[in-house]
Design brief:
alpha+beta; 205 residues
């Protein structure tokens, strides 16, 4: 009897060990399955790389405009070749291109006349001297009705001087001068230095 009970106890102990081992294996397998699912369901978010890099902000810098006192695109109040006079005898020739009234940029008054001219060299090298210089800034005008005279605004409002010796024969240079002429005067006698006088020249408004 004792032998039977001992054998039964051994068998039950063995079965208990087997069941415990099987249960431990099931628990381990279940944990591994859960871990695998957790890893597969986890998504690591990485910052997206922009497809394009925004260009820097473009900055436009406006350059200041240079204002010239006189322009060649002026209203033509006289015909080409209408007012042409010799200079330094027959060494040169001066032609008036335009004579028009403009507004004084400093005062806003319309008491300025812009005289544009073309100075041409006629004589050859053996006749023109270094002293053959037309001082455009010294140009004056006169009222043909009252004989009142008018001078330039200032030296800065003119080309200055044009030397015939610096021009090649039959070549020319354009020049201008601003004269202070009261508003209301419509005609002028114009005197360019070392040049024959221009009589009764109309002023364009």
């Amino acid at each position: 009897m004792n032998t039977f009970l001992s054998s039964l106890a051994v068998i039950l102990s063995t079965l208990a060990l087997i069941c415990s081992g099987f249960a431990a294996y099931q628990v381990y397998t279940f944990q591994q399955t859960l871990s695998s699912k957790a890893v597969s369901n986890t998504t690591i978010a990485t910052p997206s790389t922009p497809t394009s890099v925004p260009s820097p902000i473009e900055t436009t810098v406006s350059s200041p405009q240079t204002t010239t006192p006189s322009s060649n695109t002026t209203t033509q109040n006289i015909n080409r070749g209408e007012f042409v006079q010799p200079a330094f005898g027959n060494k040169g020739r001066v032609e008036l291109l335009s004579v028009k009234r403009i507004k004084d940029p400093e005062t806003g008054n319309r008491d300025v006349v812009d005289v544009q001219m073309r100075i041409r060299r006629i004589a050859g090298d053996n006749l023109v001297q270094n002293t053959d210089v037309i001082t455009v800034s010294s140009t004056t005008a006169r009222n043909p009705d009252t004989s009142e005279t008018y001078k330039g605004v200032n030296v800065n409002r003119s080309t200055g001087a044009v030397s015939l010796s610096q021009l090649r024969p039959n070549s020319s240079a354009d020049a201008y001068v601003w004269l202070r002429v009261p508003d209301g005067i419509n005609n002028l006698d114009i005197f360019v230095p070392d040049t024959a006088a221009f009589k009764n020249v109309p002023i364009a408004n």
